[in-house]
Design brief:
CATH architecture: 3-Layer(aba) Sandwich
Number of helices: 9
Largest sheet: 3 strands, mixed
Radius of gyration: 21 Å
Length: 281
């Protein structure tokens, strides 16, 4: 059996052998233990299963608007990435934007650019710019490869849990049981949920930039989240995968000045990345 010091050394060294990457625009370093092809394959399978069982919206006008806004943002982001040396970031991506018939106030993104918007969120988006807030956020999840990072964090947590359990192998059953509970709670509230909240805030930040690149006013984001706050879950932030509406609004207000540099040919690098009208959360 490995000694506790040996186990902890192995766990500490794991990140050294892991793949690393950085998020475009924010430059944040991220852990990557899984290949992009593996994540895309899993995501495509799950997305296909969802679409088969979902009720696609018959609201043709809003469905067309979702596709138009989504394509505008995706095209602007692709132009930015290509012109700034990140062309390989979206390799094998195939953007899809679908509106589904559901009263749920939600939208989600699967790896590879598969994005779904629920009809229930449309009363909160209200217009094309509000919809751009949601779709900018979801496109950001795809571009930042948050699914890859989340899977990698879960793998690291499992490695750490297994190592600690090995180190406690000679302890009594009660000690091992207590340790298992503590490890589970520690991983959930101390690692996985904070990482999820960090990703959501990063997607908000990137979403502001991406909608600005596409010619949508990022200043509309605060008003959208204020409308969303009317349907707060009531779950304490530390127990949630998402930051509170109050936290999001405050951070969005801080990030707005940077996003405005990309709006309507501002001082950012992508003044030429604004999409034209030809392209039809």
């Amino acid at each position: 059996m490995l000694k506790k010091s040996q186990v902890l050394l192995i766990v500490a060294c794991l990140p050294l052998f892991a793949g690393c990457g950085s998020v475009p625009v924010t430059g944040r370093k991220q852990l990557n233990l899984v290949s992009n092809s593996e994540v895309l394959s899993l995501g495509l399978q799950q997305y296909g299963d969802f679409i088969k069982s979902a009720s696609i919206s018959t609201d043709n006008a809003n469905a067309a608007l979702v596709q138009k806004v989504g394509r505008n943002i995706a095209n602007a982001v692709e132009t930015y990435l290509e012109s700034n040396g990140y062309a390989d970031q979206l390799k094998d991506y195939a953007w899809e934007f679908n509106l589904v018939k559901s009263a749920d106030i939600n939208a989600f993104c699967m790896p590879g650019g598969k994005i779904v918007v629920y009809e229930g969120i449309l009363p909160y988006t209200q217009n094309e710019t509000g919809l751009a807030v949601v779709l900018g956020h979801e496109v950001a999840h795809a571009v930042a490869k948050h699914a890859n990072e989340r899977m990698s964090n879960q793998m690291m947590t499992q490695y750490g849990s297994a190592a600690i359990e090995t180190a406690l192998g000679g302890a009594s059953a009660k000690v091992q049981q207590a340790a298992a509970v503590a490890i589970g709670l520690g991983a959930q509230y101390g690692i996985l949920l904070p990482y999820s909240r960090k990703q959501e805030l990063e997607a908000d930040q990137l979403g502001l930039v991406f909608m600005a690149m596409a010619g949508y006013d990022p200043g509309a984001a605060s008003a959208f989240w204020q409308r969303m706050a009317q349907n707060g879950s009531g779950i304490p932030e530390f127990m949630s995968t998402h930051p509170s509406d109050e936290t999001r609004i405050k951070q969005i207000q801080k990030d707005l000045s940077e996003a405005l540099k990309y709006y309507k040919g501002g001082t950012g690098k992508t003044g030429s990345a604004r999409t034209s009208d030809k392209w039809s959360f």
